[in-house]
Amino acid sequence: MSAFKNEAAWIMVEKAKEMGVKQGPAPDPAADEVVIKVAYAAINPSDWRIQDDPFLKLPYPFVLGNDVSGTVVQIGSAVTKFKIGQRVIGHNDALVSLNVTHAGFQTYSTVRERVVSAVPDSLPLASAVVLPLAVDTAATGLYYDLKLPLPSLNPISTGKTILIWGGASSCGSCAIQLAVASGWRVITTASETNFDYVKSLGASEAYDYRSPDVVDQLKAALRERDLVFDCVSMPGAQSACAEILTSIGGTLLPTVLKAEKDLPGNVEVRPVFGLAPAFSAIERASLSNAWAVGDASDVATALWHDFMPKALESGKFQAKPDPHVLKGGLTRVQEGIDMVRKGVSAKKVVIEIAGEV
Fold first, then answer.
1. Most buried pick, 183, 256, 290, 305, via CB within 10 A?
2. Helix axes 237-247 and 214-221, enclosed angle (nearest 10)
3. Is residue 293 part of a domain?
């Protein structure tokens, strides 16, 4: 019997556009898991996409939510990196594990230790919660697929450039920072209003994706062996990235959604599996509903335990984009999903659950 009284925002049937807040699943962490009292949970585009056109087979009723921040209240027997009372962020894996205790939209959430990071006292939990899914999605594209060096607090320049298409998005904001921490020069696309924002994250140059000649501009800015990562997959983004990639002799294009039609035949579009760091190589190989994953090497420890805590504390990695916080608890989850469905720019919608204590 769990000592924690849990509540969750349930989606009761497929394509339902409202949540029912009621008793949640009792936490029962495995040896390598931690239970987090959720202070904040973030909304992601996958939440509304699942409601509109489910791309995963889920057992309803179900609980969504990929990102949580809060305080550790219970640890599994094999957990060594965290202790009760510690401030953390975690990346939920319920969409793949199908275990609703691992979802984010509830008062107590269970997360695998490998995708939990300590949060410094200087960083509000409302800000930190924007990171987990975005970081892992960016990391999958950069490290599993494009094979960049792992991030470092003191990176050595590679002399190479990567184009991050959609730098003001959550994934793009993290991809810019991780690529810079891996020693790569970054150029990116954004609206003109977000040029200063993406440059503050480390981008050397920003290009207006709305410009009619943006593809030609980017072709001129890149060289052979440079790389391209589509972090938004909005209409036309993949085709633009594919054209640019072809012009510099590249073939592999990581994206956040599946391939558009009529792309150049020599370009391999690889939708990134944002939960790849949460699972071992053996587990990833057995996941029937996972996207393609590149190299089986494990980046989770290097990313979440070695790099991220120190990078957040030193300010070398920023928790961006800024949160747009909705107060009122789980009853506001659907409102947050609807906001993200309509579109937000350089912000991430966050639900206050327990709040900062």
1. 256
2. 40
3. no
- Ranges of H-type helices in 182-328: 195-200, 214-221, 237-247, 281-286, 300, 308-314
Strands 252-255 and 268-271: parallel
146, 176: one domain:
yes
User: At 334, is the secondary structure helix, strand, or coil?
Assistant: helix
Whole-number pLDDT of residue 281: 65
- DSSP state, residue 134: H
**Residue 162 has what DSSP assignment?**
E
CB neighbours (10 Å) of residue 251?
11
Mean pLDDT by 10 residues, the chain (357 residues): 87 95 97 98 96 90 98 98 98 95 99 97 98 97 94 98 98 98 99 98 99 98 97 93 95 91 85 82 58 58 96 98 98 98 93 94
Of 244, 261, 286, the position where a domain reaches its end is 286
CB 253 within 8 A of CB 270: yes
Amino acid at 21: V
Each residue of 167-180: b (16+ CB within 10 Å) or e?
bbbbbbbbbbbbbb
Under a CB-based contact definition with an 8 Å cutoff, are residues 231 and 138 in contact? Answer: yes
Looking at residue 275, its pLDDT comes to 82
| Rg over CA atoms, the chain | 19
| Six-digit token string for 47 | 């939440």
* 78 shares its domain with 186: no
Give the C-alpha separation, 355 to 39, whole Å.
4
The reported pLDDT for the residue numbered 276 is 80
The C-alpha atoms of residue 110 and residue 34 are separated, in whole angstroms, by: 6
Q: Are 333 and 19 in contact (CB under 8 A)?
A: yes
CA dist., res. 216 & res. 200, Å (int): 25
Q: Whole-angstrom Cα distance, residue 73 to residue 33?
A: 11
Biggest CA–CA distance in the chain, Å, is 63
If one counts every other C-beta atom within 10 angstroms of the C-beta of residue 108, the result is 26
pLDDT at site 259:
81
Domain final position from 243, 264, 286: 286
Q: Residue 48 to residues 43, 212, 270, 313: CA-CA distances in angstroms?
A: 9, 30, 22, 32
Burial of 7 (0-12, 13-18, 19+ CB in 10 A): middle
